[in-house]
Amino acid sequence: MASSGGISDQLFVSVKLESPWLAELDLDPHLFGSHPVAGSWDPCKALPLERAAAAVWDLSCVVPSQHQPLDFKFILKQKNDSSQCIVEEGPNRSLGCQSNEVEMRTAVFKLNEGKDVLECKVQVETEMLSPFDLAASWRAHQEYVQPSMVRGAHDITINTGLEGRAKGATGGHAPSLEEQRAMFVDRGVGSPNFARPTKETFSVSNFKLDSEAKQDMPAAEGAVAAAAVADQMYGPKEDRKLTIVLVGLPARGKTFTAAKLTRYLRWLGHETKHFNVGKYRRLKHGTNQTADFFRGDNREGVEARNEVAALAMEDMLSWMQEGGQVGIFDATNSTRIRRNMLMKMAEGKCKIIFLETICNDKDVLERNIRLKVQQSPDYAEQTDFEAGVQDFKERLTYYEKVYEPVEEGSYIKMIDMVSGKGGQLQINDISGYLPGRIVFFLVNCHLTPRPILLTRHGESMDNVRGRIGGDSSLSESGQLYSRKLASFVEKRLKSERTASIWTSTLQRTILTAHPIIGFPKIQWRALDEINAGVCDGMTYDEIKKSKPEEYESRRKDKLRYRYPRGESYLDVIQRLEPVIIELERQRAPVVVIAHQAVLRALYAYFADKPLEEVPNIEIPLHTIIEIQMGVAGVQEKRYKLMDAVHPTAGL
After folding, report:
1. CA distances from 339 to 310, 409, 439, 492 (A)
2. Calpha distance 59→193 (Å, rounded)
3. Residue 440 contacts by C-beta under 8 Å, 6 or more apart in sequence?
4. Does the annotation count 42 as an active-site position?
5. What is the pLDDT of residue 463?
6. Nearest residue to 533 via CA among 572, 576, 478
């Protein structure tokens, strides 16, 4: 297969080996095989697998797509004596040229002169990468941004069949391993380490980033950063800045959509700012404008509104010159003349995408109009609510007379998507990573009111010991909380039979959810606690004494600090994006039982907290945070079910 420039696509290979016994036996897994890179069957030159989690080791590399079949096997070496090798039993494994495949097999090793047998789960995954994808990923890796390669494998486990068995159980009873992790497949979320290129792997040394492109690099990590680099390397200069121009009649949810999109992009790490033209109008002309001000035949009114729109656009372009990446321009922008003015101002400075919101549901419109009059500063001094509603409807009539739907340029049309009855999303001339993510986000958004309950797992044994990470069970206090949580959920959601319970794949969250009956339970690997890497299972005092440099680096920049062989908070945010998209898509209540670092990141999204604040957000044990999603925005309540014995425990 040929790619642009005549350069062949490359095959990304990810190999994972899983066993809880390797660490206890002090065995390090390696891979060796027929290719010189894999040691040419010389055990001394075997490639080591890197520990990615408590019981998972992985190795990833890139090879030419048209390579000869490669034979390989796994080999185990003693940590203190690498000369002692245990070779995998059975025939050689073969890596062909197939792309986008996942192979699940078992590796068998004979220990103690064949008296004992050790079985390890093996996953070999391949995916074809274009030179552009590879260039972006390798560049990000060289800049110390470890890219996360998210694959198409399953990343959740849905377990709806445990309720009958759970009815008589207590919080201290652990479900079997088969019950806890049935059907689970590691999705590959993490930071794969690309093998250093050899003469047979694709080299990206000829690709250069100019200084301006480096400055425009967003704070987002992993796949987000890699795709952003690719867009910057191969896209026009003005495409590095993006303006989303809202279009639509009043009361169509433009400001709601703008605020939600701003919050999402900020959370991903993109410098994003919401420019509301209505605020500029009120600052310049006051809040006491009647409906006549918005008449299409009121020349003074039209000129005044165009003037404040131009002021807002100039401010946005100035902000972009200072480092801003995405501007959300919020106004009706209902005529071609207005939109042409904006496109002319942005020419050569940023890319414009029009986002038009259309709603034909009379019930939704009536609700939005009344909510608008209730909340808008334009009617803050209006004592007669119904008179305010009438004035707003008159204003709306004037806009309808001159309204011209978007037919020019790049655009996204959201048609009747807020009513909860389906709707359409139309797009025209949309390309690039970030515009694509925006479309995917918007197609999953709606205004259906529903609560999202966030809570940490009950206190674990590692919480009691002050150790981070791990996969320990619950303490007595944690078991008590699991029962209190079950009682709370059953009362709070007794009329919400379509609600669901989400947990991580770690047993402390699974055990916390165990007493809850009557709701489906879903396990997400993406909800697992931040990976502490080599520090997993240690106390902070132990880290300070044995790894003082790591301790100090984390103290200085907790957001960007990445544990050796582990994750940073920015990594966690990137892997949580599918969870956020699914939470936005859900129309029923969801209870999320997860971990401190993960819940900090999720809460920061809903509360629109700056990224710098994420590592220090307070998420106490044994407390429920209820997020109410709906047309009025995001509202929060907290319920403290019991005191935490060790309130400071956690990452």
Report:
1. 11, 10, 21, 48
2. 7
3. 581
4. no
5. 93
6. 572
- Return binding residues for substrate: 456-463, 508
Cβ-in-10-Å burial (0-12, 13-18, 19+) of 336 comes to middle
For 540-599, write each residue's pLDDT tens digit: 999 999 999 999 999 999 999 999 999 999 999 999 999 999 999 898 999 999 999 999
Residues belonging to the binding site are 456-463, 508
**Distance in angstroms (rounded) separating the CA atoms of residues 501 and 592:** 6
Go through the chain and tell me how many residues it has: 651
Q: What are the tens digits of pLDDT across the range 325-355?
A: 999 999 999 999 999 999 999 999 999 999 9
241's tokens:
């800045």
Lowest mean pLDDT among 165-169, 448-452, 520-524, 611-615: 165-169
Angle at 258 (CA atoms; ends 255, 263), nearest 5 degrees = 125
In the structure, what pLDDT confidence band is assigned to residue 42 with cuts at 50, 70 and 90? confident
For CA atoms 44, 50, 51, 56, the dihedral sign is negative
* pTM metric for this prediction: 0.66
Query: Which of 146-160, 291-305, 512-526 is the least confident region?
Result: 146-160
Q: Can 359 be counted among the known catalytic residues?
A: yes
Query: Residue 248: enclosing H or E segment and its boundaries?
Result: none
Looking at this protein, which amino acid is placed at residue 497?
R
Q: What is the mean pLDDT of residues 430-437?
A: 88
Biggest alpha carbon–alpha carbon distance for the chain = 94
At residue 355, the pLDDT reads 96
Buried b (16+ CB within 10 A) or exposed e, 588-598: ebbbbbbbbbb
Domains of the chain plus CATH, in order, are 4-152+176-181 (2.60.40.10), 235-443 (3.40.50.300), 450-640 (3.40.50.1240)
H-helix or E-strand spanning residue 296: none
From residue 12, alpha-carbon distances to 97, 130, 414, 465 in Å are 11, 10, 37, 41
Coil/strand/helix, residue 126: strand
Residues 6+ apart with CB under 8 A from 158: 183, 520, 521, 522
Beta-ladder partners of 13: 61, 126
Task: Give the active site residue among 133, 231, 528, 529.
Answer: 529
Q: What does the pLDDT read at residue 83?
A: 74
Give the HSE-up count for residue 272: Cα atoms under 13 Å, Cβ half-sphere: 27
Tell me, what amino acid is at 299? Answer: R
- 88, 330, 391, 528: the catalytic one is 330
330 is catalytic: yes
Instruction: Tell me whether residue 363 is one of the annotated catalytic residues.
Output: no
378 within 8 A of 282, measured Cβ to Cβ = yes
What is the distance between the alpha carbons of residues 188 and 155, in angstroms, rounded to a whole number? 8
| Distances from the Cα of 413 to the Cα of 5, 272, 430, 586, 616, angstroms | 35, 21, 12, 22, 38
d(CA 478, CA 515): 12
Closest CA to 336 of 255, 245, 435: 245
Please state, in angstroms and rounded to a whole number, the distance separating the CA atoms of residues 304 and 299: 9
**511, two tokens:** 């055990």
Hey, what are 244's tokens? Answer: 């989303």
- Both structure tokens of 239: 């495409």
Cα dist. 514→432, 499, 583 in Å?
43, 16, 22
Catalytic residue among 350, 359, 445, 535: 359
